[in-house]
Amino acid sequence: MTGRIHIDHFTTLDGVAQAPGGPEEDTDDGFRFGGWQAPLIDETDGSQVSDGIQAMDALLLGRRTYDIFAGYWPHHLDGPDADIARKFEAIPKYVASRGTPELSWRDSHLLGPDLAAEIAALRDRHREIHVIGSIDFARTLVAEGLFDQLNLWVYPIVVGAGKRLFPDDGPPASLELLEVGQASKRGAVLLRYGVKSGEPATGEMGSEN
Prior knowledge:
Pfam family, one: RibD_C
CATH topology: Dihydrofolate Reductase, subunit A
Order of helices and strands: EHEHHEEHEHEEE
Number of strands: 8
CATH architecture: 3-Layer(aba) Sandwich
Shape: globular
Protein name: Deaminase
Strand content: 15-25%
Distance between the termini: 39 Å
GO biological process, one term: riboflavin biosynthetic process
Structural class: alpha/beta
Radius of gyration: 17 Å
Mean pLDDT: 93
Helix content: 10-25%
GO molecular function, one term: 5-amino-6-(5-phosphoribosylamino)uracil reductase activity
């Protein structure tokens, strides 16, 4: 079995992915638009996200996102989000951290320092591994080419400064559009991308290809 690494990513139109879920999620550098996704999510993108969660058999997170999830989802096993909470409860959770945090959430595991080796082991162990949020960790996966698919939800809002998956000093990459999902009533669009080898090609407009 060769599993696939999916990065599930929520971004504004100008590429900011910082703190979509709530005001206190990530206030680094004085970010003041925490929770920007909440007024824009509806049944369409909500269903798309839920379908992806139900398809995964492992969750891969950075430390900050793990702490947020571990503090929330185990307490919502009943109620409107029970399907998601129970799915997260049932599957293994893998955490990337430079420290040695206490991982109290059921079936949680700390990755070792050799990230490439750890990702290879996850591919052997699982079919579909998803990274949700975890922007700093997702940046590392992109920079080192350790992912297979980017599931990118783009929302019709511009917030200016903030953390981006593709920073100004990030490495170049080539991606291939796999699918455009149904747009939500509030204007969110799901774009699925696969990885292409090599750096982006260049050319001259009007020249023959």
